[in-house]
Each structure stands twice: as structure tokens, then as C-alpha cells.
Amino acid sequence: MTKSGLGLLLAGLMLASGVADARPKKKKAKTPQAGDVAPAFQLRALDRAMIRLSDLAYEGRERSYAPKRPVLLDFFRTDCEPCLAAMPELVKVHDKYKDRGLYVLLVALVEEGDENATKLQRYLDEKKLPFTVVVDRADYVSQKYLGKVVALPATFLIDREGKVVKSKHDAKGSLVEYFSAEVEATLAEHEKAKPKK
């Protein structure tokens, strides 16, 4: 009997006898779900300022130098047509909720190379987006949120305590409609929890 035939025979006997397969299982990269703590990160904005999620949404007492706020985190690339199509909706969400404390943060995925960075800069110069844009050059942050195979568009609502409230991983429907109820509820909690002046 050949080695492969013997292997198949042993595997069949193990299954028939109820012995589990001893081969190591491949772990699927876990992406954050509702209720999970959002993965921490720090990325540079285009003006070179360092933006840390832990200065925006975090557990524990509020720090005087870093007021807590809910965050709508959107992952984006200039060659992603659905991302480009959703941008006016993201601006609409920002405009509607910014005065109530929602912080919209756009994570631009830019591979190393001047051409990609130039394309992003051209797009941003043309669109004049009203919210903060940070750059993830090595897909390090995007992989924490989306796994090894980064599929866009993807958006996460994170509450002021740093927990994921809801996420969207496709281009179907409207961002405003999809997140509206959860944004309203998250902002209501945020307003109740804000320190009184």
C-alpha cells in the first residue's frame, strides 16, 4: 500500500472511531464584532499629526486632555469605486452628527510608493473632506479590522468606551440608513455620560 493510501485509510479509521483529526486547524483571522473592544492603533494624518484611537474612545475615566467621543471609522482606497461612491454619505453623516460629538475618521489605505500617495493627495485636494484622514501605508491597521484579505468598503461605529457597536462590510444600501439608529443611541449615551460643566 502506498503512503497516501495508508494515510487515507488511517484518516478514515480515525473518523469512524470518533478520534478527532490531529492536524492543526488554520485559524481564521478574527475581525472585531459588535461588543468587542476596537483594536487600538495610531496613524499619522496628512498634516503629520499622530491620531490615536485611545485618545478618542477608551475605557475608564475621561482624561481632561483627551475628551471621549464615539468614532465612525471608515476604510478607504482611491481605487475602490464603492468607497468613492459612499464618500458623500460619509460627509453627510459627519455634517449631521459632528456637533453632537461623533468623530468621523477616514483610514486611507496607501501602498508604499509615490504614485499612490500622489493619487490620494489629488483626491483629497479636490474633495476637501471635512473630517480627519489618516494613512495606513502597510495595511497594518486595516488587517486588524478586516483580516488578511482586506475587502472594502468597510465602516465601524465605535462608542466612547472603545467598543464596536456595529460594522458594515459592503456597498449595499445607505450608510446613513444603516448606522442611523445606532449612531443616535450611541450619541444619546455619549451625551448622558459627558462630564457636566
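Above is the first protein from milestone M3; the second protein from the same milestone is given next.
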Amino acid sequence: MHPLEYLRSVARHQRADAWSVAIEFVDLVGGWGLEGAELSVAARRLLHRRPDAAPLWWAASQLVLAADPVHLAQQLRDDLLMPQQEVEHDGWRVEAAAAHGDFLILVDNEYNRFAEAQALEIPVMVNVPAGSRIPAQYVERVVEGLKSRGDTAVECSVDGVIVIDGGRAAPFAAELLRRSAI
């Protein structure tokens, strides 16, 4: 199966979790040796279908800007599969779907738990997994994608919460925001 056909089949699974889609993409880049224009087109097409997947934005931006994306793909895969560090905490834990600067994107039940804890003055710790810290321009697309799927996505400040950050931030690659002509 051609790499782009494979990506189409991945993208068709709209309810596949964001992490699985990102891992499939980095596996495809590493396994098929996608580089250059073919990599950019594949990334844009997949992001067009799955704009809600913050880890996909995170991986794609690094890969399209990399001098050697094929070798970087394995490292990104390892980062995406890295378990969240355990931290002792007496309050409630929630997980961010995406993060940028001092803001977090919380979705559905995670946001409900966050808001309830804040209202009850219960300390909150927010996990920001590897693959979630992305530029604000991508966060806008993630929120639009989540809302188009019927999810509730809310931007929340990190003020007054403990944040456990699981990884590095993605660079900004403007070409990912362009629509593919093909």
C-alpha cells in the first residue's frame, strides 16, 4: 500500500485517539522514508482530516522541519510512548489535550473535573504529556477540530495549578497550516 493511501485509512478512523494517529504517522515516516515534499503533503492531508490531534501537530512540525526526518521519527515515537511521570499529589489530577505558553486545553470530563476542583478549592495537578505542547496557531486548529467532533474544549490558565510537563514544545512550521492543493 502506498504511504498516502495508508494515511487515508488512518485518517478515516475519526474516533481513533490522537496518540495512535501520531504514532502511526511517525511510523510511516520512519518506515517508508518520507521526506521533503512527500512528507509535507502527507502531514497536511492527515492534519486536515484530524486537526483535533495535538500530538500529530507536535510530531508533524518537527518532522517537516528536520534535516533527517526518517531518523527523527524513531525518537519522536519513543517520546510519544513515554509514560507520564508519577508525582505525589493530594488534589485532583487532570490531563491536558494540548498546551501552549501558560494555557492548557482541557476537554470534556477533564475540564469538568478541573472546574469542579477549582470551585471546591481542591488543589489541581495537570499532566501535559509529551506531544501536547504546541504553538498557539496549532492550538486554534486543535480546538476547532475538537469542537467539530462534538467535544467541549476549553482554554484554561495554569495559574494556581501544578503542571507536570512531559516534554519539549513543538516548533512552528507555517507550511502545516496551508491547504494541500492535491
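Note on the second protein: The first strand starts at residue 92 and ends at 95.
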